[in-house]
Specification:
Number of helices: 10
Number of domains: 1
Shape: globular
Structural class: alpha/beta
Strand order of the largest sheet: 5-4-1-8-9-10-11-12-13-14
Oligomer: single chain
Strand content: 25-35%
Radius of gyration: 18 Å
Number of strands: 14
CATH topology: UDP-N-acetylmuramoyl-L-alanine:D-glutamate ligase
């Protein structure tokens, strides 16, 4: 069982513009609109890779039908706690000439404490059902009212493996807890900003992750570096995989696709180097698609053929 917790659903509006003019007028080339969240995106890619994700977490009365409607259209099972308030709307400005994304993300509606407790109880029940083979995916920002240590608490309640994609206090508290997650997937900016460090090279990333993260009991650290590739660090070794060169048509969901690739690799018993290849191939298969479209099974298979074998980092 793959259980995906989505706490802060959203509607993403992506506006494609040829070149972004700060403080001036920008003519929109085309727009894309999609119900999303990091958890929702990860679930969609896992479904595309022929896995069976199950989505739980929070949803909101105003606009929530767009989130559940999208999951229903893809035959992805879900059981959200529905709360008063509106699903947030995020604006994504994609500059076509440079492949740069500028994001304006709303914070999310308030979640009363009683719903947090209900979610914890749901996770306990699902953990008992799934056992040690169950996978829990925790990802994304937290809406107002949800404590910063929520991911730490949910990790502690889960008997199986936990994959975490978060930043800031949520990431730091989970890493420093007595029961850390099995795997984490920050991007380079999230890693640097969370720990107030500057990491220039894959070697820098590997050295920092070995010393400050893996030694705390985390089995897999996957750090995405955008066009500069990705790094995977485990207690046994560290690997670097360069990015596959493709025409970038959209950045939305690339990191979420990478999480899905990691999980897919883990479920198919991939070796450590291949775990990184799976992650990079899934992310590449997303950025090559227009707007908010995500990694498909066919594109993943094609990109996996083009993704080089990762090199060992000393």
């Amino acid at each position: 069982m793959i259980t995906i917790v989505s706490l802060n659903p959203c509607i993403d509006w992506q506006y494609n513009i040829p070149i972004f003019t700060y403080g001036g007028m920008n003519r929109v080339h085309c727009t894309y609109k999609s119900a999303a969240s990091k958890g929702t995106n990860t679930a969609i890619v896992l479904k595309n890779l022929e896995q069976a994700p199950y989505c739980i977490g929070f949803n909101f009365i105003e606009g929530g039908e767009k989130v559940t409607g999208k999951l229903d259209s893809l035959n992805i099972s879900h059981d959200f706690l529905t709360i008063d308030g509106a699903v947030r709307v995020n604006i994504k400005l994609f500059e076509e000439e440079t492949g740069t994304m500028t994001e304006l993300n709303q914070p999310g509606a308030f979640v009363p404490e009683v719903y947090v407790k209900m979610l914890e109880e749901k996770v306990v029940a699902l953990s008992e059902k799934a056992g040690k083979d169950g996978i829990l995916v925790l990802s994304g920002s937290l809406p107002a009212g949800v404590p910063k240590d929520i991911y730490t608490k949910l990790t502690d309640l889960w008997r199986g493996k936990v994959f975490l994609d978060a930043e800031g206090d949520s990431l730091r508290l989970a890493i420093e807890s007595k029961a850390p997650p099995y795997a984490i997937k920050p991007n380079l900016f999230e890693l640097e900003s969370t720990f107030d460090v500057k990491l220039q090279t894959p070697q820098d990333v590997a050295d920092f992750c070995r010393k400050s993260i893996v030694d705390k009991g985390i089995s897999i650290v996957c750090v995405s570096m955008g066009a500069n590739g990705a790094v995977l660090v485990t207690p046994h070794a560290a690997y670097f995989c360069p990015a596959v060169k493709v025409a970038v048509r959209g950045l939305q969901g690339a990191g979420d696709s990478m999480v899905a690739g990691l999980i897919h690799g883990a479920l198919t018993q991939a070796t450590e180097p291949d775990l990184l290849r799976y992650a990079v191939a899934a992310a590449t298969a997303s950025v090559m698609r227009e707007g908010t479209d995500l990694c498909s099974r066919e594109d993943f298979s094609e990109m996996l053929k083009k993704t080089p074998l990762p090199s060992l980092i000393k």
